[in-house]
Amino acid sequence: MKKYLNSFKQIVGAQNMITDPFDLKPLNQDWQRFYQGKSELAVTPTSSKMVSEILQFCNQNNIKVVPQGGNTSFVGGATPVQDELILSLRKMNNILEFDTTTSIVTAESGVILQSMNDYLQTYRYQMPWDLGARGSCQLGGNIATNAGGLNVVRNGPLRNYILGLEVVLPNGKILDLLNKNRKDNTGTDLKQLFIGSEGTLGIITKANVLCAPIPEQRQVFFLELKGFDEAIQLLRSAKQFEQLGAFEFMEGRILQRCLPFNPQLKAPFEFKADKYYVLIEICGQQIELEYYFERLLKHTEQIVFNQNESELQAMWRWRESVPENLHKMGHVLTYDLSIPPDKFEWFAEEIYPERKGPYNAFYGHLGDGNIHYNIIFESVEEMHKEQERVEDKIIKLTKSLNGSISAEHGVGQLKRHYMEIQKGKETFGYMQELKRVFDPNNILNPEKLL
C-alpha cells in the first residue's frame, strides 16, 4: 500500500488520509474486538467524485477496499481481513434537504443516525428505524446492512423507507438511483440490490429516505412474567394494539446480572433469574393509559409504567444496555437470528439442555421474531473451543425452523461460511453471479457476505 501513498494523496489530499498506526488501530478492529485487520491506510473522502476516483484507481491497480461507516458491526462486516484500503465515509456527513411536503430527507451516507434525528426534530419527524448504536452508526452503513433495531414492529424493515440511492460502483462509475417518488413502477428496482449487500456491490454515498412523524405521546410498560408462555400470550394480545411501537423481551437472568453495571439506573423490579420481562411501548397521537394498563394487567401481577420522559428513557436504558453489559461479563458469542417467536425458549434449551454449560441467555425483539442468543465464556480459549460445535447446532436448528442466521446484524466475516446452507446452492450461486457482474475484480469488501 505504501507505494500508492502519493497517488492517493493526489486524489484525496494529505488531510484526508490516515497513516498513523495509533489512529488506524480502531479502524482495523471490529466493535466486539473479534477481528483485527492490517490496513496501513485509510482515506476519508469528502465527495462522491472523490469516492469515484478512489475506486477507479483501486480497480485499475487491484487494490482491495473496505467501506466503513460508524464501524459498529457485530459481524466484522466493516473490518479489513488483511491490508485492504479502508474507505471511511465519516466526512461525507451533510444533510442536503428535507422536503416538508413529502417528508423525504436527502443526505450523504456519513450522517450519524442521532444527528439525523436531531435535525428532523425541528420538523417533528424522525428516522423510521432506531438502533442502540444511534450515536455512532451512519446512514450508509445502516442501509448497506438493512439494519433492524427497535421499531420494526411499528414501521417495518428499513428497506421499505429507502426511495433512492446514489452508489459508486467498484469501477468508479457513479450510479444515480436517487428518487423522491413514492411510486415508481419502471422495471427492476436496482437500488434494492445495494440495500443489505454489505458494501460488496457498491458504496452508497447518498440516500433519499422517507421519514416517520414523531408521535405526540409515548408510553412504556415494563412487565414481569412467570414463564415464557405468558410472554407469547401477551404478544398475541399486544399485536392487536394499533399503537404498538415496540415489544422487547429479556430473561430475568440477564437483567439480574446487569444490575452491577447499571448503578445509576433504578430497577423497575427486583429482577429475578427465573422470571421473564417484557418492555412494551405504545405510541400515537393520543394514548388511553387505562385502556392499555387494564389489558396488560391481565397477563401479569407485576407491571410498571413511566410517569414522565425521564422514567421512559430509564426503562429503555435497561433494554438498550444489555448488549454492552454482556460484553463486560466475559467473552461473548452472540447470535442474531430470525425464528418463530414462540420457539425462543425451546431454541435456547436445545443448545444447552436445562441451560447447563457456560452461562447462556437470550433477549431480543420478540415482536418481530428476532432473538439475540448469547453465550459468555471466562476465557478466549474456552470460547474458541466451543464455538464451532455451537454454531453448527445453531445453524441447523435455525434452518429447521425456516429461520434466518442473520435477522439484523448482517453476515460480514462471521457468518459467510453458512450462507450456502442458509440460501441454498442455487440462490447462493446467483448472489455470487451478481457480485461478478458489479465487481469482476473482487476489490470491494472481499471475504464478506459471499
Concise overview:
The chain is α+β, with helices and mostly antiparallel strands and 450 residues long. The protein is 32% helix and 22% strand.
- The structural domain count equals 3
Q: Write down the Rg.
A: 22 Å
Overall 3D shape: globular
CATH topology of the largest domain: Alpha-Beta Plaits
E-strand count: 18
Q: Spans with pLDDT under 50 lasting ≥5 residues? A: none
CATH class of the largest domain: Alpha Beta
The end-to-end span amounts to: 25 Å
Task: Give the percentage of residues in beta strands.
Answer: 15-25%
Helix content: 25-40%
Overall SS class: alpha+beta
Mean pLDDT: 95
Helix count? 16
**Spatial strand order of the main sheet:** 15-12-14-13-17-18-16
Which oligomeric form is depicted? single chain
Largest sheet, described in full?
7 strands, antiparallel
CATH-derived architecture of the largest domain: 2-Layer Sandwich
Helices and strands in order, then pairings?
Blueprint: H1 5-12, E1 17-18, H2 21-24, E2 42-43, H3 48-61, E3 65-68, E4 85-88, E5 95-99, E6 104-108, H4 113-121, E7 125-126, H5 139-144, H6 152-155, E8 162-168, E9 174-177, H7 191-194, E10 203-210, E11 212-213, E12 217-225, H8 228-238, E13 244-251, H9 252-258, E14 276-284, H10 289-297, E15 302-305, H11 309-320, H12 322-329, E16 331-338, H13 344-351, E17 359-365, E18 370-377, H14 380-400, H15 419-423, H16 425-438
Parallel strand pairs: 2-4, 3-4
Antiparallel strand pairs: 1-2, 5-6, 6-10, 7-11, 8-9, 8-10, 12-14, 12-15, 13-14, 13-17, 16-18, 17-18
